[in-house]
Amino acid sequence: MSSWLDYTINGLIVGNVYALVAVGLALIFGVSRLINFAQGSIYLVGAYIGWVAVVQLHTPLPLTIIVVAVAAAIVGLIIERFGLRPLQNSVRIAPLLATIGISFVLDQLVMLTFSPNPRALPSQLPDVRFQVGGGTIGPLDLLIAGVGLTSALLLFVFLRYSKLGWAVRATAQDRDAAMQMGVDVNRVNQAVFGIAAALGGVSGMLVGMYYNQIDTAMSLQATLKGVVAEVVGGAGNVPGAVIGSLLLGLVESYGVAVFGTSYRNLFAFLLLVVVLVLRPNGLFASARQAPPEPLTGTFIAPSRPVRIPRWALLAAAVIFAILPLFPVSFYVLQTLINAWLLGMLALSLTLVAGTIGQVSLGHAALLAIGAYTSALLSLTLNVPVGLAIIGGGLMSAALGTLLISPSFRLRGHYVSIATLAIGEIVSLVILNWESVTRGPIGISGIPPLSLFGTDLISPTSIYWFSLAVMVVLALLQGRLLTSHLGRSFRAIRDDDIAARAYGLSLNRYKSLAFIFGGFAAGVSGGIAAHLYSYINHETFNTQQSILALTVVILGGLGNVVGAMLGAVALVGLPEVFRIAAEYRILIYGIVLLLLVRFRPQGLLGTI
Amino acid sequence: MSNIDRRNLVKGSLAAMMAGAAFSRGAFAQSSEPILLGVSGPLTGPNAQYGTQWKQGFDLALDEIMAAGGINGRKLAYQFEDSQSDPRQSVAIAQKFVSDPRIVMELGDFSSPASMAASPIYQRGGLVQFGFTNSHPDFTKGGDFMWSTSVSQADEQPLLAAYAVKRLGLKKLAVLHLNTDWGRTSRDYFTNAAKEYGAEIVVTEGYIAEERDFRSTLVRVRDANPDGLILISYYSDGALIARQARQVGLKQAICAASSVYSPKFIELGGEAVEDVHVGTRYFPEDTRPEVQKFIAGFKKKYNGQEPDAFNAYSYDAMNMAAAVVKIGGTDRKAIRDAFTKVKDVPSVIFGAATFDVATRRVKGAMNAELVVRKGQFALWDGKPT
């Protein structure tokens, strides 16, 4: 029985660590209704500044904390001023994408400055341990708990009793009204970003000391866990974020206790989905609180799409179709094959995210379902590859829609977070369901693509095959968008209450969109499986989902041609920048930021 | 410029960088062309640290190869393409290398999904894919152009099991392993060997690579009441587990796989890794000449930095590549055939490496039983800890 005490204590200790990130995220969300994907990067920057202070400058702990807090706050202010403020009048999804771009750039800068090797960040506290239950806790545990609780408390008092705090809350409630009342909204935003960044930086440093280890990969994990904790506690609710974090830590710890270590994150993400479905405003939202998401479609603003004449599209299709007849290197063809595969995924995502407004951050799961289904069908049941890929598409449509259906009642950011969690759950199920998926060993020896008994193994034939599949899917989707179904989808996106009042069944239409989108994504995954011949749980990861969303936003939400154009651009750019070696992802991030800055509605605009 | 490592060219502005690259290409055309190897591996992304370690080993080996007169008088160089260990990028790189006539063979990639996704392209394109960290049992089954010097886990894990069970006398083992294809395969070989030697596996726990907190896992381990912990880990997660094991009050012996063998393991683990046992393939005081040459050369080139396991793998791989190219010349098929002919190539990991033509792997890795004493890896003196 004493083990349960240990599991509880361990859960609280980890929850403590999550709380530091979650509080900063909650603060920013509270004011700007923005999930700051760059918070993990500020955390990373803080850890490395802490390393410089401790190891190079030998500062004592209080001074280290101040140095890190100030430096991180400055980074936060720069992000706010140059990354986000220029976007404040554009679509709400633009800042979300901007934070993703900023996190790319920050992570890369840290990696280039400090090399990707992990470093030790020694704790500056005396090494005394107190016996609690079967284990021990140290002074750093207490300090982390102290920083988490104190900052949450201070923020709570600040928001409730100080004048700037009122301004922050007023801005959070209604930005325009606050401005009319004379609140300097920009100053409020600045204050919030400064505070949140300082907190993020200090937490990165403390967690680095806690594990005596910092590395450049810590950023994404911190963001993921922080977002889960924050949403569980109620987005924008600072004390809720602390309690959400502790709860998350406990659920993970008990999950490990009952089922074993490899199930740990499964429980974290299941907790998130359950909370979102049952109490979408978080566990601690009061009943009379206004929904934190706007009722109508300001998340995705309409814009005037760029009209591309039919002859130009036809000409582009013909040029790409006859491209292999010219002396083009296989490398170019392979890169374009990747673009067509990503294009299919983007078609799928642009339909569900752009046309019907369900911005999914877990789309790689649909790829994985399609890929595994197709691979297993052809390997174990000897189904011909062409049919197996269609089977993968169908399975992805059916299973994907079923899995995502709990998120149908959510709006805006919450859909993104729920789908992010569902994507992670699918990946963890693939890892753990060994009897079917072969777990971490993965599936090797997947037969190559073939059609009517002929193997497609030359890059030229694979190129034509994937291009043809993508074009057919695009034509179908174009037809869909001009039909009454497409109009209903957009009506739901633009104003779901009006759409419902008009008699549209939201769930049915959302399901239809996911069935169509799931099929396209599943086919893409299926083709990829046969192309690679080997897949495992890491082949289709969260980065793929984020990349797909970037493609869709870049091309213009809901825009079929834009999705394909965006895919070519985002597959092509990193290849073009190869000349820059380690710098290429940095350049890619900067290009992405500039695109969001100057073309937030996407290259071709929302349809 | 000793090789086409473009990183050296990237200095200053983008414009200067482009100009630099263009210039260096021009320069190669004039001088006698180097024999070019393609490397596909991570320089950015979550595995970037391993790509940078590869480069250190490659560069050291190339320096030595050049000093010894190159490949029959010609230069050897590599072109490193960043794949981020992402299969989508490694397949594009594979096509790039296959269609570039200057590339005579390829080294890498790092992770199994990235490497094995590219295998069909190398196989069909007739370019050797020399995967020197690819322990996945199916890697060399991709075709006769897939060769690997990665230590087979079927070889390595029984050695670790012998160290833990026969030499240290541990009888009830808790196995913690990275839940990847490598960790999983290793765990299976380890448990089989340990059981054969008469030990009991009381608990196994697989964890994902991003995991940082192991306290709850270690409570499970404690409740299983083992007398030793086996870590099938890399150095960063291995150090985390060792630290937290001591913090939750586990005092049992810890025995780790060779992949933790790195000065970083001691730096990150601090006092907690004191007395940790590590089965490795070489050790600093090893009197073998290839080991002494490697360690001394490495320290000299990299300001006294100690080499680690991944440095050794890439150093060995470049030396093997040189030996193969010496026999096979620049013809891609001849290079594949040369893999069957090379004999007893001096190697840090294998002593003398010769491929088993049936499996296209090298057997018989060296074995050293080390223990961390006073913050240093030292040969185990036989004393229990």
Which labels suit this protein?
heterodimer; A: mainly alpha; two-stranded antiparallel sheet; two-stranded antiparallel ribbon; 24 helices; 71% helix; B: 385 residues; seven-stranded mixed sheet; five-stranded parallel sheet; 12 helices; 16 strands; globular; disordered N terminus
Write up this protein.
The complex is a heterodimer of chains A (607) and B (385). Chain A has 607 residues and is an all-alpha fold. Chain A has 24 helices and 4 strands. In chain A, the strands form 2 sheets. Chain A has a two-stranded antiparallel ribbon. In chain A, a hairpin with a 2-residue loop joins β1 (130-132) and β2. The longest helix of chain A is centred in the first third of the chain and has 31 residues, at 2-32. The N and C termini of chain A lie far apart (60 Å). The model of chain A has no long low-confidence stretch (mean pLDDT 86). Chain B is an alpha/beta fold. Chain B is built from 12 helices and 16 strands. A 7-stranded mixed beta sheet of chain B has the order 7-6-8-9-10-15-16, sandwiched between helices. A 5-stranded parallel beta sheet of chain B has the order 2-1-3-4-5, with helices on both faces. In chain B, strands 11-12 form a two-stranded antiparallel sheet. The longest helix of chain B is centred in the N-terminal third of the chain and has 20 residues, at 48-67. Chain B starts with 13 loop residues before the first helix and ends in a 6-residue tail after the last strand. At the A-B interface, α1, α10, α13, α23 and α24 of A face α1, α2, β2, α3 and α4 of B.
